[in-house]
Amino acid sequence: MSQNQTYDREFEVGHQTWRASKNLDSDRGYPGIRYVLLHTFAHALIRQLAIECGYTSASITERIYSRNPTDGDPMAGVLVYTAAADSEGTLGGLCALGEPDKLDRHLRRALEKMRLCASDPLCSEHLVGSNDKLHGASCHSCSFLPETSCERGNKYLDRSALVPTFERTDVAFFG
């Protein structure tokens, strides 16, 4: 538990540094480590579903529902959807992948793919807040999505929140 509190504090400091560099109030808007976990999970799932259903990842969107226990009733949920049924397929194709007999396989594959990145070890060594970036072990090779798909512009992401990485093995939710 203390590793996760330290990890949460690292993200909060990165958040404050990033906001201060943009001349924004550095004490506002930190979503918490629960959000980082859910957001990274959503990206992993979208990337996996895009491969399986035929949609491009730009056609699939996320909505993260997250509230830390200290901020009221705790909340943790992810909505993955497509807003446009067009030539790329139908919403039914995406929904079919969410059936229990298929979803388990897609979740396992999504998490497996997060363990390694084509840009490792460089990606996994990335520190939150370094180089004016508000993410940890995340990059275009492993977890970034097109801007149309991500509600936070690829900020507040870190593969090590989900699974062990080369650099960090002590904070992964899915060990």
Based on the model shown, name its key terms.
single chain, 175 residues, mainly alpha, two-stranded antiparallel ribbon, globular
Question: How does this structure look, described?
Answer:
The chain is mostly helical and 175 residues long. The protein has one domain (28-162). Helices cover 38% and strands 9% of the residues. The chain has five helices and two strands; from the N terminus they run ααββααα. It has a two-stranded antiparallel sheet with strand order 1-2. The longest helix is centred in the N-terminal third of the chain and has 21 residues, at 33-53. 36% of the residues are buried. The model has no long low-confidence stretch (mean pLDDT 87).
- Spans of at least 5 consecutive residues whose pLDDT stays below 50 are none
Radius of gyration: 16 Å
Tell the overall outline. Answer: globular
Q: What's the rounded overall pLDDT mean?
A: 87
Q: How many domains is the backbone divided into?
A: 1
Secondary structure topology:
Layout: H1 2-21, H2 33-53, E1 60-67, E2 75-82, H3 91-96, H4 100-115, H5 159-162
Quick structural summary:
The protein is mainly alpha-helical and 175 residues long.
